[in-house]
Amino acid sequence: MDRRVLAVIAVAAVVIIVIVAIMVMQTPPGGNGNEQLGGNMVDIRDFSFDPGTLTVANGTTVTWTNLDSFDHTVTFDNGPFISSELMSRGEMFNVTFDRSGTYNYHCSIHPSMTGTIVVE
After folding, report:
1. Would you give per-residue pLDDT tens digits along the chain (120 residues)?
2. Are 54 and 117 contacting, i.e. CB atoms less than 8 angstroms apart?
């Protein structure tokens, strides 16, 4: 094989390794978990909850992960659920929804951050 072709392949391999390493370093502890929890995740990033509204089946556990550089909370406006404590980057909070209904929540530090869980 031509040396130039081998050099291009070697450089491409190094670039791929560097990109993967950067992605791994930027993932907070615990990852985002979407693959493991069937997408019942809410990411906290850029001063918002993503998705803003999540619809789940009764009995589903929802996990919030703070991917932001700032601390946030998950504070429920209604329902029998315990709100989170202050969550730093990479921290997670879980709630199992065992009653149908619409549950609104916000960040107690940043009240403009709001979200909704709809339980069917």
Report:
1. 688 877 767 666 665 664 555 554 444 444 434 334 456 999 999 999 999 999 999 999 999 999 999 999 999 998 788 899 999 999 999 999 999 999 999 999 999 999 999 999
2. yes
Around Cβ 49, how many Cβ atoms within 10 Å? 22
Contact 75, 99 (CB under 8 A): no
Task: Give the architecture-level CATH label for domain 32-119.
Answer: Sandwich (2.60)
- The residue ranges of every structural domain in the chain are 32-119
CA 45/CA 26 separation, integer angstroms? 13
Strand partners, 102: 118
Q: What are phi and psi of 26, to 5 degrees?
A: -85, -10
According to DSSP, the residues that pair with 94 across neighbouring strands are: 63
C-alpha span between 94 and 53 (Å, rounded): 16
